[in-house]
Design brief:
It comes from Telluria mixta. This is Putative 4-hydroxy-4-methyl-2-oxoglutarate aldolase. This protein has a single domain, classed as Ribonuclease E inhibitor RraA/RraA-like (Glucose Oxidase, domain 1), CATH 3.50.30. It is 31% helix and 24% strand. It is built from seven helices and eleven strands. Helix 2 packs across helix 6.
């Protein structure tokens, strides 16, 4: 018996609960990356157009052929408020996949932000709009709108596989993707880690703790210090 082929455009996906997204938005990407096992962080080539840009939301994934943005337009027609467009543009920098007009449309739809493994343009206008846009570069060339791609399939972006519905959190340090099933646990761990780091910073600034409590033990384990020896 033959099986039907899944469509290239998947319209309905399971999104991370909005309450979890709101909680995740309170944490730096570095905290989330650490407690997620130091995985899920996209390549540093994918950077915000302005360091103050931040976003959080479920991934709506898009695969395009280099230099063509037809499927981005299709995805925007399917996007829901709060979605983050995660675009596998194959790392191509020969032309921009998005610019001010598309960003303005994203804002009107309520899209939370865009991650592009490719180039964009109209960067000054996008910065002025304040829309969270992450890309690997800028190029004034425009794209074609001719080649089919896929929507809401797994994509490879900056060395990380991103699935539709994954939690995406991004700030000035970069972008982190977390699988939905892991989000509740990751958020619990993030709360503890943030509290621990806040206490550590207070200890440094007050002069009460000027070196890590774990340092001597780590040096002994590494063979730098003898058992019982301290710095």
């Amino acid at each position: 018996m033959s099986q039907s082929t899944p469509p290239d455009v998947i319209r309905d996906i399971q999104r991370v609960d909005s309450a979890l997204v709101a909680r995740a938005a309170r944490y730096p990407s570095s905290i989330l990356a650490d407690v997620a096992g130091r995985r899920g962080a996209l390549s540093s080539r994918i950077a915000p157009l302005a360091p103050t840009m931040r976003l959080a939301g479920p991934a709506l994934t898009i695969e395009v052929r280099p230099g063509d943005n037809l499927m981005i337009h299709a995805a925007m027609a399917l996007a829901k408020p709060g979605d983050v467009l995660v675009i596998d543009g194959k790392g191509d920098e020969s032309c921009a996949l998005m610019g001010e007009i598309m960003v303005s449309q994203c804002m009107a739809i309520g899209i939370a932000g865009v991650i592009v493994y490719g180039a964009v343009r109209d960067t000054e206008a996008i910065r002025d709009l304040g829309f969270p846009m992450y890309a690997i570069g800028a190029n004034p060339n425009g794209p074609s709108k001719l080649v089919p791609g896929r929507i809401n399939w797994p994509v490879s972006v900056g060395g990380v596989t991103v699935n539709p519905g994954d939690l995406i959190v991004a700030d000035g340090d970069g972008v982190v993707a977390v699988e939905p099933a892991k989000v509740p646990t990751v958020l619990q761990l993030a709360e503890k880690k943030l509290a621990d780091e806040t206490a550590r910073l207070e200890g440094i600034r007050s002069g009460a703790q000027l070196r890590p409590t774990w340092l001597d033990a780590a040096l002994r384990k590494a063979g730098v210090l003898a058992e019982g020896e301290t710095l």
